[in-house]
Amino acid sequence: MAKVLVTGGAGYIGSHTVLALVESGYEVVVYDNLSTGLARSVLPPARLVVGDLADTRLLGELMAAEGFSAVLHFAGSIVVPESVTHPLKYYLNNTNKTTSLIHLAISHAIPHFIFSSTAAVYGMPDTSLIDESAPTAPINPYGRTKLMSEWVLEDAGAAHPDFSFIILRYFNVAGADPLGRVGQSTPDATHLIKVAAQAALGLRPELRIFGTDYPTPDGTCIRDYIHVTDLAAAHVLALGHLERGQGSGIFNCGYGHGYSVREIIQAMQVHCAVDFPVIEAERRAGDPPALVADSARIKAVMGWEPQYNDLALITRSAYDWEQKLALR
Questions:
Q1: Is the peptide bond between 45 and the residue preceding it cis, with omega within 30 degrees of 0?
Q2: Does the annotation mark 142 as catalytic?
Q3: Whole-number pLDDT of residue 198
Q4: Cα dihedral angle (276, 281, 287, 288), rounded to 10 degrees?
Q5: How many other β-carbons are positioned within 10 Å of the β-carbon of residue 282?
Q6: Which DSSP letter does residue 178 get?
Q7: pLDDT digits (tens, 9 = 90+) for 20-52
Q8: Could you tell me which CATH number the domain at 192-223+256-326 has?
Q9: What's the pTM?
Q10: Are 183 and 251 in contact (CB under 8 A)?
Q11: Residues 6+ apart with CB under 8 A from 226
Q12: Would you place residue 243 in the very low, low, confident or very high pLDDT band (cuts 50, 70, 90)?
């Protein structure tokens, strides 16, 4: 049974991927500073080690002791507007610490690395469907810090033939584990579907639409929403791809169709039969009008077949998880 290190595995996407890895037979050690993740999200038999990526001594000792065959790297800062107002935090957390982690992995002869990247690296593309060959021109520090980390991985892989990597560019991740084991638990998360679920439950006084004058059919931003469990499955496939020696690569993770902010709100209101207050506000800094994935490559190369490509299912699972959190 291969042993893998998952940084940020107590967070939203990381915790779902840990479940998928365990169910696929991997031994998993999570390394997380719990700044946004929760210890209770790391379910046994996965083990949690509390530490920051900046603590290279602790992390190096862990790598030396455990003999990992792969690193799956989720730890980082992810809020686009915050990256605009606090860019140095993002360069430190997303680029500097990732570079240090890659260096440690290579130093300890860990052969495989899977990196949590983002569609934000594409910036404001001029195509309706974005594939991996689209120009990378991020418009905010969050996207730039992720793209810089991608470059570090590519250069490290070129210099070290025994080190292979997969970069997964996420589009908008939503929903929760269908069995209700884990979900998006960060109290102040900014994910639209989570915020809509909280508004539907009365946990927020209203939901704000940031910008209604975008060049889209209803004036609000369009995003490709991928269920977190389908994204977790993509990571397991990516790890198997590397283990079989099939080479490094970059892959989009999305469904290939988008929904506007207004459509997401309507879907949540229909599911909950609650007409919660919606306030129109000014645009946020760093938000492109539309981001929709062309995921043909990951389907063709890895055989990825989404199981939860259904907006009603995504919103329902998010709402059910938020309701569960409210009862704790």
A1: yes
A2: yes
A3: 94
A4: 90
A5: 10
A6: T
A7: 999 999 999 999 999 999 999 999 999 999 999
A8: 3.90.25.10
A9: 0.95
A10: no
A11: 170, 171, 172, 173, 174, 253, 254, 255, 293, 306
A12: very high
Distance of CA 121 to the CA centre of its chain: 13
Residue type, 71: V
Mean predicted lDDT score pLDDT of the chain: 95
> 2.170.270.10, 3.90.850.10, 3.30.540.10, 3.40.50.720: which CATH number matches 3-174+224-253?
3.40.50.720
Task: Note the pLDDT of residue 266.
Answer: 95
- For the record, the structure tokens of 4 come out as 């893998």
CA 120, chain centre distance (Å)? 11
**Angle at Cα 144 formed by Cα 140 and Cα 145, nearest 5°?**
120
Q: Which of 90, 122, 142, 255 is catalytic?
A: 142
User: Sorting pLDDT into bands at 50, 70 and 90, what band is 144?
Assistant: very high
Quote the CA–CA distance of 109 and 154 in Å, as a whole number: 17
Q: Where are the domains of the chain?
A: 3-174+224-253, 192-223+256-326
Structure tokens given for 179: 């069995």
List all residues 6 or more positions away from 65 whose beta carbon is below 8 Å from its beta carbon: none
CA angle 319–11–14, rounded 5-degree value: 100
